[in-house]
Design a protein that fits this description.
Blueprint lengths: L38 E2 L2 E7 L5 E9 L10 E2 L2 E6 L14 E12 L2 E12 L3 E7 L8 E8 L3 E10 L2 E11 L11 E7 L17 E11 L4 E3 L10 E9 L2 E7 L4 E4 L6 E3 L8 E5 L2 E5 L6 E5 L5 E5 L11 E5 L2 E5 L5 E5 L5 E5 L9 E6 L3 E6 L3 E6 L5 E6 L8 E7 L2 E6 L4 E6 L5 E6 L8 E7 L2 E6 L3 E6 L5 E6 L8 E7 L2 E6 L3 E6 L5 E6 L11 E4 L2 E6 L10 E6 L5 E5 L9 E7 L2 E6 L4 E6 L5 E5 L9 E7 L2 E6 L4 E6 L5 E6 L8 E7 L2 E6 L12 E6 L5 E5 L9 E7 L2 E6 L7 E5 L5 E5 L9 E7 L2 E6 L4 E6 L5 E5 L9 E7 L2 E6 L3 E6 L5 E5 L9 E7 L2 E6 L3 E6 L2
Parallel strand pairs: 1-15
Antiparallel strand pairs: 2-12, 2-15, 3-9, 3-13, 4-6, 5-6, 5-12, 6-7, 7-8, 9-10, 10-11, 13-14, 13-17, 15-16, 16-17, 18-73, 19-20, 20-21, 21-22, 23-24, 24-25, 25-26, 27-28, 28-29, 29-30, 31-32, 32-33, 33-34, 35-36, 36-37, 37-38, 39-40, 40-41, 41-42, 43-44, 44-45, 45-46, 47-48, 48-49, 49-50, ...
Amino acid sequence: MRKVLAALAAGLTGLVPAVGVVGSEAATASAPARVSASTSANWSGFVAESPAINIQGAYGKWVVPSVKCPTAGDEDSSVWVGIGGDYRVPYDSGGVEWLYQAGTEQDCRDGVASYGAWTEEADNKRLIAGEPVQRVVEPGDTMVATAVQHKLYTLVTLVAIKGGRVLWSTNRHFYFTQYRSEKSGHTAECIVEAPVPAGSSHLAALADFGTERFAYCQASDNSGRVYNFASPATPSNWKYLALTMKAGGVVMARPRSGPLSVSYNWAGGVHVLGWGFTYPQTVVVDGPDLFVTGPEDKAVTELDVSTGALVRVISGTAYRFSVPSALAVDGPHVFVTGGDGPLTEIDAATGALVRVISGPSYHFGSTTAVVADGAHIFVADGTGSLTELDATTGELVRVFSGPMYSFSGPSALTVAGPDVFVANEDGNSLTELDATTGALVGVLSGPQYHFDYPSALAAAGGDLFAAGLGGELTELEVSTGAVLRVLTGPHYGLAQPDALAVDGPDLVVVNQSGSVAALSLATGTVMWAASGRAYGFEHCQSVAVAGSHLFVTNNPGPETPGIGSLTELDASTGALVRTVTGSPYRFAGPAALAEAGPDIFVANNGDNTLTELNAATGALVKVISGPEYHFGGPDALAVSGDDLFVANAYTNAVTELDATSGALVRVVSGPAYGFQNPDALALSGGDLYVASINAGVVTADSSGAVTELDAATGALVRVLTGGGYKFDVPVALAVAGPDLFVASFAGQASPITEVNAATGALVRVLSGPAYRFMGPSAMVVDGPDLFVADSRAASVTVLDVATGHPEKVLGGPAYDLDGPGAMVVDGPQLLVANAGGTLTEVNAKTGAPVRVVTGPLYGFNNPDAMVRWGHTLYVANRTGTVTELPAG
């Protein structure tokens, strides 16, 4: 039900046409995603693609997520299953391509969450028939959707289920007519989407849906055979694609295979401020320390077990964390894996990297779980394999794969006695292997086991416990595989159980729904249960036992936007000990920094707030938020005297505050100003310049605009767009002498445009092979030189300000420019922040590399902004921290 006008993302160069809106206010417009690349501006999820029109149907199942809404403003998200989303017929060719889909929407309106369902038929030119389903939809409802083509029509169905009971269902027949004569069939999709709201013409802010897991995604061919996405049995000429939602160079949502899921990504002498867990998924204990990681953090956080104090944040490109979501401890080492990443081995005592294990022979494609038994390490992969390694050397022992093992969405591992067990979430089965020889012992499946999406395993004595998200706990005899008992329902504290741990005589059950219970291993009796707001439980997914205490991971909840936590409990009673979180700073996707007198201001793009810090001490001064500020995706800051200006990408407004008190001065917005996703600011004399990614009216020369305001009054001076300026996704501004330089991120030329700041007249457009521009992302001026960081080209180009001529292009292994972005000049040196997690220092006069700053001590994790204050440098990390380190 969601089609956008055009989304701007790396790798997507064509514009997608706008689609009209029909029906009630609940109806929205959808936009196709070009799935020829692994990124999309508005979709994240999974696609089965056929080179011919031979996909007949799409089938999927998911649970309606609970969205976390900001205190004010609008955000939207949609989850759907459909067929025909890859529009191969160009908009202007006269041809037609069709999309049929059914899904749910999870939206925020002025801080209040709303939910609904819909079905839709659309083509690549317009919405033909979109209709809301007039039924109640709530978070936690299970949705089953299908879209199947028949001879004369396409049948779209949507069924809502709760507690195993069908709540409602709807069927819609979309008949082919002489006008609608072409069928779809190139693609089938399971997607989470950032839509265009009704009555709007631009992409909505993506609502924080947490992590959306598809229980299954399937497609059928013209003969009616049904295939799981990425199954080995899928026809050889079909492609399987996992789409990352990426707009303006920022990843908004990421897919994860095995199980298929999509995670919200926007948030998230050396002092790491505001450390916190963006999306903690796994916790393990090693002696005096806890290790915590999650798929969005790209880091492992180490805490002191006894106090909850931070020991260190382990991160950096050397560790090659991709979407870390699984941990295992083996003696002095911690093993980390997840997603498409390798297996990383860390020294538990120091956090130092031991080694990174990767390569095609290991079959790491979508790792989901890891377990150690002293001699060996076992790694489960969502593509349907299990890898065994030597725990001492990291060398490959063997890879288990093939139909005989029945691996289908392996999600959990445990060692019980001589065997290793694999929980197959998609197959509702357990696979048992001999841990010493690797021989297959058997596959346990069938109705007697009551496996319902098994996602957690634990062993105690001679028994094995398997819990499933469906709400059942099965106890098995390890030696025979026989069922000993099955516990089910809230009476036993079971509500979407997703983690298990053995604590002496008890089995601890952690439920995604936000509760923890301890059951007697002997009788199954509930010994204690803990739930409620005081515990901070939110989408709990992991548990670890440390002496007399338990630690439970919590995903971000409404009370702590963008920040996860750990809840510590007394293991005997379930009493709350403490909640460990880095929440006071409220860092969530920090996107910009600015110095104002004694303070540093941080713009939190993911939380719609500003955090004010004391620059000398790093202490929190205050967090500024509220509907009156119109903060919506704050993306840029600028300071003029006592005034602080904030560019808001989602509310299309510029907010002016008193930098001393934080009081609101004014909000500048409205059609006359031409703000469309403003994301860069610069000051020159008495004027403020605002760059907007999309000017609203796309011309042959420009798809963006630069607005000039009187900084003292907020009055409009002029809007620059079109007319040869070639603003194509302008993302950075810099002032040098009488001129304003504008960097454009998109387009084939990706130029730098020079404008006379006083008159707005075009001076020149700088582009061509000598500049090596592919995606300029940041600029800084140092005397006669203009430095331009290019994140796509992994380079920094030095221009002569007076002539615009390129003097040199910096790049290569010595610079380690991995996604260069923010830059500052620090005396004789130029500092460049790299998205890969490093800081490159360059001699500003000669361009020679000085050093590359990296390592877990610095906590660099997708650094996105920098500011210098005296002898201190502050670096904002998109994942939700600010690193303070000595400058120079």
